[in-house]
Amino acid sequence: MAKLYFHYSTMNAGKSTILLQAAHNYRERGMEPYLLTAQLDHRAGAGRIASRIGIGETADTFAPGDDLFQRLTARLSASACACVFLDEAQFLEPDQVWQLARAVDDLALPVMCYGLRVDFQGRLFPGSAALLALADEMREVRTICHCGKKATMVVRKDGDGRVVTDGAQVQIGGNETYVSLCRRHWREAVAGSDPSLRSRCNG
């Protein structure tokens, strides 16, 4: 039975590596996957899903306003497709998550989404919030804080390495921009860089 999956984590947990391995496993069994990634994230090149360990694959891209149900319907009409793997799922619009859910329900097409759960301010991305509400199954991809505890949050840093507490929710970056932390160390980092947030973080 087809399902909508949401694999979520913080930055640098290996989501793309897991996605690429899963897609490879499908091909080994003679089943063709369909790969999608966000158009706005081109750190690895336009239309490419890449892992920090050096593996990557080309993929189609999605952008705000795209009708993903129509896209997947057309893809199935063109050739067989066993499963959809979608990277950078936090950049989906809520309507697009509903479109993916419709593809699961009406086209019997499994859809596996991989993305971040929260932003650098500790708030859910709209796409991630919709996936948390609609996904049939959710799986956490874990990574660790520098203290050894599970990392569930992420801080954004500027070019001088200082923690940033305001700005646009979406800013593309990698290890030079984002650091994954446990909640305690995220609270300390955020409160230490912006005194106005101390009451929120420390009660």
Automatic annotation (TrEMBL):
Sites where the protein binds ATP: S9, T10, M11, N12, A13, G14, K15, S16, D87, E88, A89, Q90
Transmembrane segments: none
Localization: Cytoplasm
Matches recorded under InterPro entries: P-loop_NTPase, Thymidine_kinase, Thymidine_kinase_CS
Residues annotated for Zn(2+) binding in this entry: C145, C147, C182, H185
Gene Ontology MF terms in the entry: thymidine kinase activity
Active-site residues from the entry: E88 (proton acceptor)
Location (main, coarse): cytoplasm
Cross-referenced PROSITE patterns: TK_CELLULAR_TYPE
Entry annotated with the keyword Ribonucleoprotein: no
Catalytic activity: thymidine + ATP = dTMP + ADP + H(+)
EC number(s) from the headed UniProt entry: 2.7.1.21
Name of the top EC class for this enzyme: transferase
The keyword Zinc appears for this protein: yes
Swiss-Prot/TrEMBL keywords: ATP-binding, Cytoplasm, DNA synthesis, Kinase, Metal-binding, Nucleotide-binding, Transferase, Zinc
Membership in a protein family: Belongs to the thymidine kinase family.
Subunit composition and interactions: Homotetramer.
HAMAP family: Thymidine_kinase
Protein name: Thymidine kinase
High-level lineage: Bacteria, Pseudomonadati, Pseudomonadota, Alphaproteobacteria, Rhodobacterales
Gene, per the UniProt record: tdk
